[in-house]
Each structure stands twice: as C-alpha cells, then as structure tokens.
Amino acid sequence: MKISQLRTLLAIRDNGSLSRAAQVVHLSHSALSTQMTQLEQDLGSALFVKGRRPVMLTAFGLRFCVEAEDVLGRFDALRQSAGGDRTDGTIRAGFVPTTQQTLLPVVLRGLGATFPKLRVQVTSGLSGDLAEQVARGHLDLAVMTAGDRIGPEMEQTEIAREPLCVVAPPDTAGDAESWLGTLPYIAFARDTRLGQQIETGLSALKLRPETVMEIDSLDTIEALVREGLGCSILPQRLFAPPLQDRLTCLPFPQDGAARRLALLRRRDFNRPTVWAELRRLLA
User: Fold this and answer.
1) What is the C-alpha separation between 57 and 48, in angstroms, rounded?
2) pLDDT tens digits for range 148-175
3) CA–CA separation, 47 and 76 (whole Å)
4) H or E stretch covering 175
5) Domain that residue 9 falls in
6) What is the count of structural domains for the chain?
7) Rounded to whole angstroms, how far apart are CA atoms 112 and 95?
8) Is residue 217 part of a domain?
9) Largest Cα–Cα distance in the chain?
10) Which UniProt keyword terms apply here (predicted)?
11) What are the tens digits of pLDDT across the range 100-109?
C-alpha cells in the first residue's frame, strides 16, 4: 500500500469521477485504474461497486476512505514538521482560472528566481473546490476568491481587492444602470464565488439585466463585450491592464464592491520563507 494510492482513492471519492480524479492527481486514466486495482489486491477487498457508472464506493471502500484520510493527515503533518523551512522540493498550489493569466505567471517567475530548486505543481479549480483540497491536504495552498467560512485548521490572507466594474462596448454612452437596463447582459458563471457576489449585488440594487449568455471566462466576456455583444460586470484584476483601455468602464454602483482575492493555506504548512515570498509577490 502506498501513500499515492490513498491520495488517488480520496480524489475519486471527492470528485465522483475517475477522469476528474485523474486530473487532480495528475495521472492518466489507465495509470489511475492500475493504482486502484493494485490497492484492491493488496487489501483483498473491493473498494468500488463493479460496473457502476458513475463510480461508486462499496461500504468497505467508504470506511476505508475515512481511515485513509486520517492516515494522510498524519503523514502530511509529519512530513511538514520533518521538512522544516525548506525552499526546495515541491509545493502543490491551486489557482482559480481567473488568475491564471495574471497572478500565476508572477508567482512562477518570482518563486523560480528566488528559489531555483523549488518546484510548483499547479492545479486549477473553483474557489470552493480548491479550499476543500487545501483542507484535505491535497494542496499546500491556493490563490482564490476569499471565503467567509474558513475552518480553524486554515489560514486565509487577503492579498487584493479587485474593484467591480460595469463594462460596455467602446464609446457606449450613458451610465452603468442604463446599460444594465437596456443592453444584453453577459453574466459571469453563477456557480462561482465571484458570480454569486455579482448576483447578490444586482439584487441589492434591484437591477435585473436581461441575461443572454453565462460565461466562465473573464477574458472571453471582455472579448464579447468589445465586439458589441452586450455589457457585463467584471473585476479589475490584479496585474491586468486597465479595463478602460479596451472597453467603456464605470464603477459598479454599489459602495466598495470588489472581489477579494486571498491566499489560503493549512496552518501546518511549514514553509514560512516560501509563504512570506508569496505574500510579497502578490502584495
């Protein structure tokens, strides 16, 4: 039995899909299946209900996952305490997709220049999913939209507030509320923390724009607005060029409306030098 097999098993349980779990643990589908077959042979018991799609754990598999989670938590804590303040090896970092063209290059360049022996293994996901992976020890840290409910084993450090802006095609006349009342509205994905924040802000202002599209990429929304296909609400992202350089841009008509970006880690992440450099790079 190997630690990597336990991590793979928990990834399958948490994601409910072999293909999604393979992405999380960075294995091919066949390599993942081989790992699980070997683990079942070592245990002498079936972990999965045969022939079920989507994948389903047996009663034994569910009980074994609980024990595996405890073992992995203890193993990761032991590794952290034994490793000390290392600046080499590998750290596992999650980034929400909306930071990958802006913050991710800054982090990789900066850490690579300061710690040439450090390897950063990057995972992409929504903020809630990344937070759960950090909590479970699958990731060491995450750059994500800040959450209001953080477990006691976690530490969240706000790194930026990205003001929300109402954007319209170049040279559009009028004010933000008139755009939202008359132009087709391109919404950012509502299953994200940012999308939910925007919807809450619109409801508070009693604004009900006519949604014609819902997109999960800020860059795609910018391109669609620039082409005259509607208006939207976007954050002015950290390290990104000003929105007003490409679009007609006005502040979202709600005081202090901004996306809060944060660094999240488990409190037992024992690399204070790397953590301090991350905070400096994103300050």
Assistant:
1) 4
2) 777 778 899 999 999 999 999 999 999 9
3) 23
4) none
5) 1-83
6) 2
7) 17
8) yes
9) 70
10) DNA-binding, Transcription, Transcription regulation
11) 999 999 999 9
Beta strand residue intervals within the chain, DSSP E:
89-95, 118-124, 141-145, 154-168, 185-188, 211-215, 232-235, 248-251, 258-266
The CATH code of the domain that includes 42 is 1.10.10.10
Q: Are 207 and 181 in contact (CB under 8 A)?
A: yes
How far is 42 from 258, CA to CA, in rounded Å?
A: 51
Binning the chain into helix, strand and coil, the percentages to the nearest 5 are: 45, 20, 35
Amino acid at 2: K
Q: Residue 274 — φ and ψ, nearest 5°? A: -65, -45
Q: What type of residue sits at position 73?
A: G
24, part of any domain: yes
| 231 vs 221: CA distance, rounded Å | 9
**Last residue of a domain, which of 24, 56, 83?**
83
254 φ, ψ to 5°?
-145, 125
CA distance 209 to 201: 12
Return d(Cα 104, Cα 97) in angstroms, integer: 10
The two tokens of residue 82 are: 């034994």
